[in-house]
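Table S2 (continued). Query chain:
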Amino acid sequence: RHNVDVLRKTGSLNMEGMHRRKDGTTFPVEKSISWVRLDREYLVAVVRDVTARRLEDQARRTLATERAAIVDAAMDGIICMDSEGCITTFNPAAERIFGCRSSQVAGHSLAPAIRPPGTLARLLEELAPQSDTGPAGQAEVRRVEAFGLRIDGREIPLELSVSRMPGAGSPIFTVFVRDITQRREAEAQVQ
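Corresponding output:
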């Protein structure tokens, strides 16, 4: 009854549901129903099978869940930044390295936490005008050793691997961050 009232009031109704095939199997559909007035009133219904779209949506959700699990489980810090250099992703390893929560840095620039000043900006500038891929279709990566400024004020040695994510539109950057304190201490002992 509610759908009929909506249809009369607005002249059209869109909804999703399930339909049954002759063999008894069901499939998802999208229904568009319109009230058309010509010489008399007609109901016109268009029913679309949305099985493929539902499968694609499910595949996208699964992929997003898998990617999030990988990023969260990574031993290295993974930080994604938009074209302005503002942090959009800051995984748990990055939280441990910098000593702060993702919510504290989201939307802020990573640049002030990287020493010497200008290091990150230089890398982003080098990558920004690049095409989406380097040789053999691989994303171009810049690696550098620098220092990171933790939230408690301590500086720690870091290895940064910065790349531009392939895709259309404004550049999006990924920074893989590794705390190399132990490596530097081992190198100092050898010397």
